Amino acid sequence: MSDSKSLQTSLIHSDYQAPEGFGALPVAVHRASTVVFKDVAALRSRDWREKNAYTYGLHGTPTSFTLEARLAAIEGGTHCLLAPSGLSAIAMVNFGLLKAGDDMLIPDNAYNPNRDLGRWLAQDYGISTRFYDPLIGAGIAGLIQPNTRLVWTEAPGSVTMEVPDIPAICKAVRERRSGGQDIHVAMDNTWAAGIAFRAFDHGVDIVMQALTKYHSGGSDVLMGAVITRDKELNHRLGLAHMRVGFGVGMDDAYLVLRGLPTMKLRFDAHDAGARKVAAWLKARPEIERVLHPAFADCPGHETWQRDFTGAGGLFSVVFDERYTEAQTDRFVDSLKLFKIGFSWGGAHSLCVPYRVQTMRSNWTSKGQLIRFNIGLEDADDLIADIEQALGLLA
Ligand SMILES: *Cc1c(COP(=O)(O)O)cnc(C)c1O
Question: Is the CB of residue 214 below 6 angstroms from any atom belonging to ligand 1?
Fold first, then answer.
């Protein structure tokens, strides 16, 4: 799958071999807790870390091994571990690389449960967690301490949408690593789905994906993945995976596999719809700012233009500050096609109001922030829906 075929073709044509005499195209669902060994010698020689044999359901079956291989290939990595949600994939990285006395850096605009986990590890587990300005770029070098082991990145932050300079952050970390420090860059690459941002090519060491979003595309499954290009690093993370017991259900793994062939087409459709709706909103007098990385006034837009090849369906708007929270809540309540709910990557358009002041250390906009996830509906219908709800604002 890593040959010269385009991503779209690779998403459809994988190396999967159907059982002899049964040439079905979908990957079979293999469920198991116990895996039986042929003799005691086979049992004694088992090594779950190598994934060259099946040992126990927690470490996978042919279904999850196939999904892991396909996710690693999509992302341009070599190793992949599945977790039962995107958030548990984040936790796997933290548990795998951090111990008491270590330090970790998280961008101030990161997925909020990632920040919350960081605060918890700091409060109860002796790990120092510091939050940094997502636009810090090469300046991250000044924040790295001798005990810093992990630098999280996310591009863009999925509410306020600043696009960080990932290559600059990775370069600073790599310099410390070549000086002997055990330090890695992890990236939450969920927004770009591994399609619009080639994280490993830009220097990232560990890619985390919430497969819950674009990969599955069905709004019906939770799953996460941690992908690396390094066997030793994968072993460290795999140890955390085993110790904490981050197994996934094989029916869920199948749902994600089923989403992969259409993932890029869906991503591109979300992207086109979102840019159309965002452009329409930008021209409206009620809206102070549109926060969409493809728009020139989004913080980090130049970085997005340099490093990314697409944008997906997610963006936010800041209303003019003359509108109160009660008014913009009414706007959200008046939308008919946009459902009120978290997550993205499914067919339905969604929207969520955020109290950004409570999530960020230095947020200066006074207007209300609403995040839109553009689904797969006709963009003109979505615009008409927003227009009728804006009409009720005054
Ligand atoms: C949804 C999401 C997660 C967490 O995924 P879950 O499967 O919902 O736990 C992590 N990071 C980002 C950016 C997300 O959007």
Answer: no
CA nearest 275: which of 302, 294, 303? 294
User: With a 6 A CB cut-off, is 157 part of the ligand 1 pocket?
Assistant: no
Whether the CB of 137 sits within 6 Å of ligand 1: no
Residue with the smallest CA separation from ligand 1 atom 10 is: 86
Pairing mode of beta strands 148-154, 184-188: parallel
Predicted TM-score (pTM) of the model is: 0.96
Spatial separation of the C-alpha atoms in residues 127 and 244, rounded to whole Å:
18
Phi-psi region for residue 337, left (φ > 0), alpha (ψ -120 to 50) or beta?
alpha
C-beta 210 within 6 A of ligand 1: yes
Could you tell me if the CB of 252 is within 6 A of ligand 1? no
CB 113 within 8 Å of CB 151: no
Asked if residue 190 has its Cβ within 6 Å of ligand 1, the reply is yes
Each residue's pLDDT tens digit, 337-369: 999 999 999 999 999 999 988 877 778 888 999
Q: Which atom of ligand 1 is nearest to the CA of 190?
A: 13
CATH of domain 263-390: 3.90.1150.10
On the 0-12 / 13-18 / 19+ scale of CB atoms within 10 A, 338 is: buried
Pocket test for ligand 1, best of 114, 116, 190, 191 (most atoms within 8 A of CB): 190
List of the chain residues with pLDDT < 50 = 1-2
Q: What is the third-level CATH fold of 40-262?
A: Aspartate Aminotransferase; domain 2 (3.40.640)
Closest residue to atom 3 of ligand 1, CA basis:
86
pLDDT digits (tens, 9 = 90+) for 252-277: 999 999 999 999 999 999 999 999 99
Question: What integer pLDDT is reported at residue 19 of this predicted model?
Answer: 81
Domain with CATH 3.40.640.10 in the chain: 40-262
Question: How many C-beta atoms surround the C-beta of residue 223 within 10 A?
Answer: 27
Q: Which residues contact 202 (CB under 8 A, 6 or more apart)?
A: 166, 167, 170, 307
AA identity, residue 300 = G
